[in-house]
Amino acid sequence: MGSTEAPTPVQAPVYSIVNEGPAAPAACSIVNEAPAP
Question: What is the pTM for the complete model shown?
Fold first, then answer.
């Protein structure tokens, strides 16, 4: 995926945004789209 995996669901949104730069995975993208403001 990226450099490190999200240890907690709280970091999911932040990690997803950072991962969106190079190549965000479909799973992470979908999960982040739900709680995303």
Answer: 0.15
